[in-house]
Design goal:
It is built from 16 helices and twelve strands. It has about 400 residues and is an alpha/beta fold. The strands form four sheets. The chain has a five-stranded mixed β-sheet with strand order 2-8-7-6-5, sandwiched between helices. Strands 9-12-11 form a three-stranded antiparallel β-sheet. Strand 11 and strand 12 (about 380-385) form a beta hairpin. The longest helix has 29 residues, at about 310-335.
């Protein structure tokens, strides 16, 4: 007799990315020469986790009582204020309309957005290339996921496809929730430019006159943006009062502490009554899931954001990591383009996506036979340059060129 409910009986037991990473690790431990481009964390050129020394010290300096004590349900007030100041340092209009709740990493923020801005069995909308757990989080919350073609013929964001997708959501659901992972999109590495954001915002504003539209910007990688990480926010200011603006903020990549699970969902609404409703609803969701987030983690991140000396040190250390990634990006671009490898505009970030000729899973399996691991997705190969030493990029590109051939 099966006691597990039927809809949960066929769920996979392991995340496919973690399974690939485990296989690559085991083969390396057996003595094989392996290039592992599956890992979603930043490794140095010796294959060790890249950790900001200042972040590590700040975490270690948190008193034991701060780790042991409960945090407020919505999050520590000073932490939430620090997140808003960090995110909206250049846009006071957004800061003045914002509320936030602490979440266990960016994933918690995504979960809160899905359950508070969509009814059960409704679908969120995102790009055709997306971070796989979007689907998992939606499924777990009894919602679903729909996509629109991410790139148009010119290689930029396909805004007409996005508009059609949103119109379909409005027609079938009476509302729409759009996830945009930018800058440094996972899995493509693509970063939208100001003019693209401007066009997206114009379409959202027009559609917002017909139905409730919510835009969530998944800003997990924004500290590694190829240009000023806050430039795009200027294009969103005109949406205030027309579209509900959400931001999934995460300390995981920004401060290289993935396991600390410190994040926040930020919501921007000009109307004070609606802000109070939002704050109450998000706090209620927190109480009904994880109850509260790690107080010690919030304390450490608050210091890193607000202490001038610590913030300056972190910025300098992170700049070195951005330089490390930039060197890998430049090496990849220099070698991949002449080999005819097809991929989106890639200017920086943890990942790039390659479009192979033929079935992605088969191409990835062929690459694994050569000791090169990438992640097959729908019609593409996700390549985590964040975990590949610069010296291994020529071998990586050789394997990709064969897969793309």
């Amino acid at each position: 007799m099966l006691h597990l409910i039927p809809s949960h009986q066929a769920r996979p037991s392991d995340d496919p990315i973690f399974a690939l990473n485990r296989e690559a690790t085991e083969r390396r431990q057996r003595g094989e020469s392996i290039v592992n481009a599956t890992v979603g964390v930043l490794l140095d050129d010796d294959g060790k986790l890249a950790v900001l020394p200042t972040s590590a010290r700040a975490v270690a300096d948190v008193p034991a009582a701060e780790w042991a004590e409960y945090a407020p349900i919505a999050g520590s007030p000073d932490f939430l204020a620090a997140v808003l100041d960090d995110l909206f340092a250049s846009e006071p209009e957004l800061r003045a309309s914002a509320v936030a709740v602490a979440t266990p990493g960016g994933s918690g923020a995504l979960r809160h957005a899905i359950v508070n801005f969509l009814e059960p069995r409704q679908a969120l909308l995102t790009t055709s290339y997306f971070w796989g757990p979007y689907q998992t989080i939606a499924d777990e919350a009894d919602r679903s996921l729909a996509t629109f073609s991410m790139f148009g013929p010119d290689g930029t964001i396909d805004v007409p496809a996005m508009e059609l997708g949103l119109e379909a959501q409005i027609l079938t659901q009476g509302r729409a929730l759009l996830f945009v992972n930018d800058p440094c999109n996972n899995p493509t590495g693509y970063s939208m430019r100001a003019e693209e954001w401007r066009t997206v915002a114009e379409k959202l504003a027009a559609l917002g006159e017909r139905a409730p539209i919510t835009l969530l910007v998944d800003a997990a990688y924004y500290a590694y943006a190829p240009r000023d990480r806050r430039t795009f926010l200027r294009e969103l200011v005109p949406l205030l009062g027309k579209v509900c603006l959400l931001f999934a903020w995460s300390a995981s990549k920004t401060f290289t502490h993935y396991g600390l699970r410190v994040g926040a969902l930020v919501a921007c609404v000009p109307d004070a009554k609606q802000r109070a409703q939002l704050q109450a609803a998000l706090s209620y969701s927190s109480r009904g899931t994880w109850s509260n987030c790690v107080r010690g983690g919030q304390r450490a991140v608050t210091r890193l954001l607000t202490d001038p000396a610590l913030a300056k040190a972190c910025d300098a250390e992170r700049a070195d990591l951005v330089k490390l990634l930039r060197a890998r990006t430049d090496a990849f671009n220099a070698l991949a383009a002449p080999r005819g490898i097809r991929y989106p505009r890639y200017e920086g970030g943890f990942f790039v996506t390659v479009f192979p000729r033929g079935e992605a899973a088969k191409r990835a399996a062929e690459m694994r036979e050569r000791g090169v691991f990438v992640v097959p997705t729908q019609g593409a190969l996700r390549v985590g340059l964040c975990s590949v030493a610069e010296r291994d990029i020529p071998r990586l590109v050789d394997a990709l060129a064969t897969a793309a051939g």
